[in-house]
Every structure is written in structure tokens, then in C-alpha cells.
Amino acid sequence: MEGQSEGIQIHKFYLSYKINGEVNTGWFYGVHIRFAKDQLLFQHPEATDLMDWTLEKSEDLRRYLLKQNASKLSVMIRLKEQPS
To answer: What pTM was computed for the model?
Structure first.
């Protein structure tokens, strides 16, 4: 719970999202998770694969990011190996 304004509690959520296949992360604010995700989509309408990491272990996020980067690298290698 980050702040209050006239009885409304604003929360901070740590979200990951993809833009053009690249994983990004950031803090987004809202009265609940849906509002925070809406804020993310307002700022980045092209974002996909939204995930909330606020209460997750940082090691789980690190594993997810490594897996996503490994997957992206694998696709890039396969594309490069294809004959033109």
C-alpha cells in the first residue's frame, strides 16, 4: 500500500510484459491489479504476456527472464541458420 487519497489505497505492482518478443519489467500503480495492468496497456498498447511479479520470489522472476532470453536466442540462431 503506497499511498492514500480520500480513503482510496494505491498499490504498487511489479509487472512483466513483452513488446515485440522482448520482456520488459516495471512498477505500475493502481487500486488493484486490473487497474495497474490497464495503466501498463495505456502506456504500452502493444504489450502482451502481462504477468504480476509483486509477491513472487525474485529468483522465480530471474528464472523466467533467463528462460525467455534463452528462447529468444534459440529462435534467432535458428533464423540465422536458415539458408537465404
So the answer is: 0.74
